[in-house]
């Protein structure tokens, strides 16, 4: 039986921490679907199609990884793509508490879906997309936290002439 996993998130933007988890999941499972959530409530910097394109570029080195955008319930997406496992990254105890609550809800909605929590590699434990956006909005360098194509996209997005 093939194991297809979903690694969901807003990925606004996708970071090296996310890619560390993608690489580890790609080694553990037959197929990894990076599921980019629409998440309009989070007021993302990048539109869904932009986040999908950036994630696709960043995940290109992984032969068994594909990227798809989705809206609606994550469990509906997991059911649609016939995923057996949901991979979630947890950096802190606060992340774990929130994710454990979500996991319990997911199990009620889709009992056959297993949830796997993966901690990030130590060097990425503090990296969060929200922090990357904050640094970039204030003119800080984010190159050490994101893939090169993402750093370029952030600079283009935040250049005053591109906001007209």
TrEMBL record:
ATP binds at residues 10-11, 18, 89-91, 99, 124-130. It is an enzyme of class 2 (transferase). Coiled coil: none annotated. Gene3D superfamilies: HUPs. Keywords: ATP-binding, Coenzyme A biosynthesis, Cytoplasm, Magnesium, Nucleotide-binding, Nucleotidyltransferase, Transferase. Pathway: Cofactor biosynthesis; coenzyme A biosynthesis; CoA from (R)-pantothenate: step 4/5. It is found in: Cytoplasm. Its cofactor is Mg(2+). One of its GO terms (molecular function) is nucleotidyltransferase activity. The record marks 18 as: Transition state stabilizer. It comes from the Bacteria. Substrate binds at residues 10, 42, 74, 88. InterPro entries: Cyt_trans-like (IPR004821), PPAT (IPR001980), Rossmann-like_a/b/a_fold (IPR014729). Pfam families: CTP_transf_like (PF01467). Homohexamer. Reversibly transfers an adenylyl group from ATP to 4'-phosphopantetheine, yielding dephospho-CoA (dPCoA) and pyrophosphate. NCBIfam families: coaD_prev_kdtB (TIGR01510), cyt_tran_rel (TIGR00125). Belongs to the bacterial CoaD family. This is Phosphopantetheine adenylyltransferase. It comes from Pseudaeromonas paramecii. The gene is coaD.
């Amino acid at each position: 039986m093939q194991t297809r996993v979903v690694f969901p998130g807003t990925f606004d933007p996708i970071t090296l921490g996310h890619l560390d988890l993608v690489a580890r999941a790609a080694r553990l499972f037959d197929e990894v679907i990076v599921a980019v959530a629409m998440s309009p409530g989070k007021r993302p910097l990048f539109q869904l199609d932009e986040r999908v394109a950036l994630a696709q570029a960043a995940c290109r080195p992984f032969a068994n990884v594909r990227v798809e955008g989705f809206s609606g319930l994550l469990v509906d997406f997991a059911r649609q793509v016939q995923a057996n496992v949901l991979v979630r990254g947890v950096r802190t105890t606060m992340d774990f508490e929130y994710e454990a609550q979500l996991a319990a809800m997911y199990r009620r909605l889709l009992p056959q879906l297993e949830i796997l929590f993966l901690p990030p590699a130590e060097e990425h434990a503090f990296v969060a997309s929200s922090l990357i956006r904050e640094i970039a909005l204030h003119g800080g360098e984010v190159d050490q936290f994101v893939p090169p194509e993402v750093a370029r996209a952030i600079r283009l997005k935040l250049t005053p002439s591109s906001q007209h």
